[in-house]
Amino acid sequence: MAELYPPWNAQVVEGVADVLGHTDHGMTGSQITRLLAELNIPDLQQRDTKRVRLRHALLAAQDKDGTAGSVVAFVNRSMEPVRYRDNPSLWTSRQAALNEVLVFEGFRVDEAGRVQQGRHAETLSQATQHASNLRAELRRRGTHKDVLHYCTTELLQKNAFHAVLEATKSVFDKLRLRTGCCGDGAKLIELTLCPGDDPPLAVNGLSSHSELDEQKGFANLLKGVNSMFRNPVAHDPRLKRTVTDEELLELLTMLSMVHRRLDTAQLRRRPCQSP
What we know:
There is one protein chain. The protein is 60% helix and 4% strand. It is built from 13 helices and four strands. The model has no long low-confidence stretch (mean pLDDT 85). Strand 1 (107-109) and strand 2 form a beta hairpin. Helix 1 (10-20) packs antiparallel against helix 5 (88-102) and helix 3 crosses helix 4 (69-78). The protein is elongated, with a radius of gyration of 23 Å. The strands form two sheets. It has a two-stranded antiparallel sheet with strand order 1-2. The protein has two domains: 10-125; 128-267, no CATH class. With 275 residues, it is mainly alpha-helical.
């Protein structure tokens, strides 16, 4: 273990403790106590806050062992996906926060919750370069401003998985804004875009068979986005739904087109409020 994990910078170890011992989003005090005991890491400051306790325990273990092995073991155990089966979004946010720290030692938490070697950053600009590159590519593609609103550097730095969920929400937010409806998902699409030949919100003049087909196709496209991206991302465990950077860019480019069509769509009548 010493060969694989030489001692980490104390600031990195403290950063790990800050993430896992966060007041609101970190582990509970009892979870920290139990996990330290399972790994035979002495809990030296039991009367302190969660962050301080964890900092002291992990730094002392690293100093004693001469390696970062105990720190890695704690991260691995705390990030086991089975622990997050009822709250996969918490796993996602912790993985992202840990990776923002571990990148300074050239490590990352992978999709199985294990610490693995990754890219190494020495500066904050290097740590955020990946997010900046994605945002620059979105701008190069002329991505709609309402899509970019949901994809800030902070969001992209976390992961593509979370960006997909937020970006798809933006479309349904706009449907509600344009129509005054309060539904969501496929029901909202049906209510606003699909009532036969007389949809409340029309993306064209509806004056020909081709235009009616386009209207139906647009509605089906949104249903597909909801089924393929939003629902799996929102409900599947993080481990089962990987979203690549390429998939993210392609989806956001398509959502940009959707937003532009909604911007110019004609509100022909106010649909009934959904229950």
